[in-house]
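#structure-requests
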Amino acid sequence: MESTGTNTASESGAAPDLDLVTVPTRQGLEAVDIIRRAASQAGGVGPVLHDGSGDTLGFLVPPGTADAWDLPGSACTQTNGRGMRFGDAASPPAGAADVTGWLLPPEAVGPVTDPDVLRAALGEAARLIEAADNCR
């Protein structure tokens, strides 16, 4: 799937129609590093959410990604703009452990993550984690 170049931040702060890929935090953090290191990857990593409990990361991807997403250990849901506001992308206040916030806010990274780049990075991250866990 080609990146649509959809920008997540808008002048009005309106919620765009995007999909959200959620993964376990450890795998997600590895994937962020993999994408950032791969300078040749088109678009790089887009906005990434973290949940308040620290269990998952959510990557914003172009709308329609959920229709064909089938990567084990992850989920992709359609947001249809529900519950997402980009006008105030600030981190949650100190002590607000149960609040979802930005690991990488929209204004810091720009467009959403390309689903093909994300899929490859998540696969590589899973292999790295498995190898590291087997060395113990």
